[in-house]
Amino acid sequence: VEWRTLETGNRLGVTWPQGFYALQDYDEFSPATRIIMLSGIIDQAEYLYQYHKHGHNWTTMEMNGLALAGLTFPEFKRSGLWKEYSIDVMQREINRQVYPDGVQWEVSTKTQWVALHRFETIARNFSLAGETVPSDYLGRVEEMYDYLAYSMRPDGHQPLNNDSDREDLRSRILAAADKFDRNDWRWIATNGSMGREPARGPTMVYPWAGIHVMRSGWEANAHWSFFDTGPYGVGHQHRDKLHLSISAFGQDLLVDGGRFTHQDYFSFDPVATWRGYFRSSFSHNVILVDGQGQKNNELVATRDLQEGIDFMHRPNYDYAMGHFDAGFTEVDGKISHSRAVLYLHNKYWLVLDRITTDSPKQIEVLWHLAPNGKVTWQGKQAVAEYDQAGIQIIPLGNDSWTTEVIQGQIDPVKQGWYSADYGEKVANPTLVYRNEVVNEQTFAWIFVPFQKDLPKLTCDFTVHTDAFQFHLSDPGSIRINIPKDLSPERVKISEN
Fold it and tell me: What is the pLDDT of residues 192-246, one digit of tens each?
């Protein structure tokens, strides 16, 4: 029966051993009741020992329950077997489930914490019982925390990738910094008021998870972006490859839609279910083809990203690119989407979208804005303003877009909704750019964050035989050359 091993793991790991000892001084806790409860613990531990899952986040909860049964009841004949087996399984699982870059293979920040909490709990229980925990196991726990610390928004909240909520991680990171003596985590979590400035970053790449966190610094008003070029994930997935989120000056600007609900858990239907909308491409900053979103792509990474091939970091900019070619729901033929993101430090983001198709296709490029913004149009350009900051969105090289802002729509398809916390949703403005693609076409965009006055940015965009050239004035002069294959190694930037 589904959920039985998970529930059993949680009973033994969270309530039954604790409850048994908490009731010792109560007369109502009779000898007969104690025997029945102890017998139940043995039965449940044996059940977990024989029937637990492998390669699943449930495994972490199941093994925590088995371990605590063995640690808290050494009188049982098989308690030693339970505890040894549980830590061995968890050792295998942390190496199986967690990529070498520290990201758990569901590639969901929420699930990262759920798995990390269980991996850490069993280590703590072993330590409290005077049992040894392998040092390499603790090192893997530290790597998982490291990802959470370095991927946080400047305001301390986690990314909304896959099934996640916009949770504040700072208290957890500070507690972990005390455990692992990490002054760099203290600096990140306090925007530099505690600890020591990290020797790495501020931009970070997680090459197995395919996550690029581009940022200008560690201060509260820093620019921050999250670009996903990685695998689908083994669970809690959203169809959001090549999604881009942007935050600046303490304000979310471009957003991921979040998760909202687990009702109709496996749905990706943005018409029939809320779950389907929030999991689908419709709630992310990606493209739709003939009105349809992405299919699923590879579950796990088969290689790590390579600097110079997939991304590049330079003193004044960061660059990353990725591909999606797994197809779109109910769309025939071959179509691929390549996206490159260039972040010019402390200035703006330049995005290139290359669409290749074997037959004419209608595309919609979606840019979901944070709720409560005031959106105005200047031709095809859009400006979204908030109390703390704003963003200007400039399409380049194509004047044939048709544009629309959708907010809080239910029919004919759900669109323009945002969920920062599970069970809650609000309407948010979503920019929709529509066009037709025949064979191959590349579209370019500039995202300019601002705090008070709208920047006076102009850009000339030209297409050459082997490269795209951008000449930007802000009012300084910046020339950017990006090769047509979007390769990082031949990107050139000059500033005057």
Answer: 999 999 999 999 999 999 999 999 999 999 999 999 999 999 999 999 999 999 9
Hey, what are 404's tokens? 């629309």
Q: Rg of the chain's alpha carbons, rounded to an integer? A: 25
**Rounded Cα distance, 478 and 470, in Å:** 8
Closest of 295, 291, 310, 171 to residue 228, by C-alpha: 310
C-alpha angle 370/371/372, rounded to 5°? 125
- Of the candidates 409, 151, 430, 124, the one whose C-alpha atom is nearest the C-alpha of residue 274 is 409
Instruction: Tell whether omega for the bond before 429 is within 30 degrees of 0, i.e. cis.
Output: no
As a whole number of angstroms, the distance between CA 253 and CA 357 comes to 31
Q: What is the pLDDT of residue 352?
A: 97
Do the Cβ atoms of 9 and 65 come closer than 8 Å?
Answer: yes
Count of C-beta atoms within a 10 Å radius of residue 114: 17
Half-sphere exposure of 252 (CA within 13 A, CB side): 26
- φ/ψ of residue 162, rounded to 5: 50, -150
In contact, 110 and 172? CB cutoff 8 Å: no
| Per-residue pLDDT tens over the stretch 161-191 | 999 999 999 999 999 999 999 999 999 999 9
Q: What is the pLDDT of residues 240-276, one digit of tens each?
A: 999 999 999 999 999 999 999 999 999 999 999 999 9
CA–CA–CA angle 231, 234, 240 (5° rounding): 45
Q: Which portions of the chain are predicted below pLDDT 70?
A: 1-3
Cα angle 27-78-68, degrees, rounded to a multiple of 5:
60
Do 293 and 239 contact (CB within 8 A), yes or no? yes
Output the CA–CA distances (angstroms, integers) from residue 353 to 10, 119, 255, 256, 341, in the order listed. Answer: 46, 39, 18, 18, 9
